[in-house]
Amino acid sequence: MIRFSTLLLCALSTASVALPLQAADAAPTGIGTTSTEIDLSSLDLTTTRDWTIANKKIARASHAVCQKLIQDNWLVDSDGADCEQDAFSRAHEDLYALRDQQRTLHQSGHQNGHVLLALSAGK
After folding, report:
1. What is the residue-wise DSSP string for 21-76?
2. How does 47-64 read in b/e, with b if 16+ C-beta sit within 10 Å?
3. Among residues 47, 60, 48, 51, which one has the least CA distance to residue 21?
4. Count of helix runs (H) and strand runs (E) in the chain
5. Biggest CA-to-CA distance, the chain
6. Beta bridge partners of residue 116, listed in sequence order
7. What does the domain layout of the chain look like in residue ranges?
8. How wide is the angle at C-alpha 30 spanned by C-alphas 28 and 36, nearest 5°?
9. Mind listing the pLDDT tens digit of every residue in the chain (123 residues)?
10. Terminal CA-to-CA distance of the chain, rounded, Å?
11. Using only C-alpha atoms, what is the Rg of the chain?
12. Which residues form the signal peptide (predicted)?
């Protein structure tokens, strides 16, 4: 059985520097691990429009990391949809936390944000 684990790290910082990566450029980080950084620093997640954009970016990143694991033979094609759903669901949970942080910092004008989606599969 293949086990999936997904980690979405959200950070808001006035000192953070956005180094945006294209979601399609999932980078291998180790054996059976792929990650991509999603730049959300230009988005205000408290608005419906930007919340929708963030969700689309996470969906694309979930697809990219799962496809990378398939290409690297860590997953079989038939596990791709489950992998993407798992990655998206876990990332979405943490996206709520990022939005809450933005709400807290919104009054002070700080809206930088990064999301790192890392996905690994063990055989």
Report:
1. --TT--EEEETTEEEEEEE-TT--TTSHHHHHHHHHHHHHHHHHHHHHHHHTTSS-
2. eeebbebbeebbbbbbbb
3. 60
4. 2, 4
5. 48
6. 9, 37
7. 3-122
8. 35
9. 233 333 333 322 222 222 233 333 454 455 667 777 888 888 999 999 999 999 999 999 999 989 988 988 888 888 889 999 988 988 888 899 889 888 888 766 555 555 556 565 654
10. 7
11. 15
12. 1-23
Token digits of residue 54: 């963030």
Which residue type sits at 32? G
Tell me the pTM.
Answer: 0.62
pLDDT at 104: 86
What pLDDT sits at residue 57? 94
3-state SS class at 122: strand
